[in-house]
Every structure is written in structure tokens, then in C-alpha cells.
Amino acid sequence: MADPRIKFDLFGTYIATIKNSIGTKMFQNIYIIKNGRSIDVANGGEFSCAAFVSSVLVMSDNLIKSSHATVKRTLEDMQESGWYKIKKPREGAVIVWPPWEKSDHWHIGFYVGKNKSISNDGLGTKTPQKHPITYGKFARKIDSIWWNNRLGKK
User: Fold this and answer.
1) Which of 2, 71, 88, 121: disulfide with 106, CB 3.0–4.6 Å?
2) In terms of residue numbers, what domain contains 118?
3) Is 2 inside a domain boundary?
4) What are the strands, taking DSSP E only, across 43-151?
5) What's the CA dihedral at 55, 57, 113, 100 to 10 degrees?
6) CA atoms within 13 Å, Cβ hemisphere of 150
7) Are 119 and 110 spatial neighbours (Cβ–Cβ below 8 Å)?
8) pLDDT grade, residue 154 (50/70/90)?
9) Span 9-46, pLDDT tens digits
10) Would you say residue 33 lies in a domain?
11) Can you give the CATH number for the domain in which 132 is found?
């Protein structure tokens, strides 16, 4: 019988998982088979932001149903799993950025407090990295901020 004085700390574990992910290469590759050939659709980490976020959400007591290779499918799963938009970021919220400059790729990551986010750095290290929520001097606009009450009430 479980000790009633002991309870799993979902939020604490979730935040630790996000922060401890910095520099990991585990999200750099996502393979599909197309016409009998194996193809890395994440291109060695260039397009791994959705895999990073969705995998952390799955690992964190199934905050969504499955890991995904695209921001679109990650957001659909989040909505199906009780995530909703909020106006102001709070620690642990999921942040979505629209395509940047000539790219048509949306970007997704986590807010970790003090105007900082952790998301996959597809152009540099190709691993999750901490950065300003708006990417500093480049001032990338935020499209939406998402929350799930399983992480705590708003």
C-alpha cells in the first residue's frame, strides 16, 4: 500500500526534466521510411523542436498522448489533452513562435521563468538551449502561450 504522505511532484519533475535537457542530443533524429529509404526528417536536429517538446510532455505523466515531429500535430495533441492558451507566460508554459524571416517553420519550446525559454536550437548546437523568451536583440514575436491545469491552477 502506498504511503499517503508521499505524492508525486509532477510540476517539480517536469521543470527539472526541461532544465536538464539542455545540450542533450536525444531529439536530433526522427526517422521515417519513404519509398523503402530511411530519412531523418529532423535533419540532425535542425527541425527537432516539436520532438523535444512533445517528448517531454509525454515523459511528464502523459501531459499529451504521443511524441510528434511537427509543431502543428504537437499543438493538436495538446488541445486534445486539456492544454489551453493563456495571456502571460508562467514557469512551465509551452511557448509557440511563428515562422522567422524567410522560414515557414513554426517553433515551440518551454518558458522557464525570468524571461527565459528552453527550446531546440536548430541553427546552432541542434540541441535544447536556454535563451531569452523573444530571442534577445532579434525580438522574435510570440504567437501563443499554453498551459495545462495538471501542472497547477492558473
Assistant:
1) 71
2) 10-151
3) no
4) 84-86, 94-97, 107-113, 116-120, 128-132, 144-147
5) 60
6) 14
7) yes
8) low
9) 999 999 999 999 999 999 999 999 999 999 999 999 99
10) yes
11) 3.90.1720.10
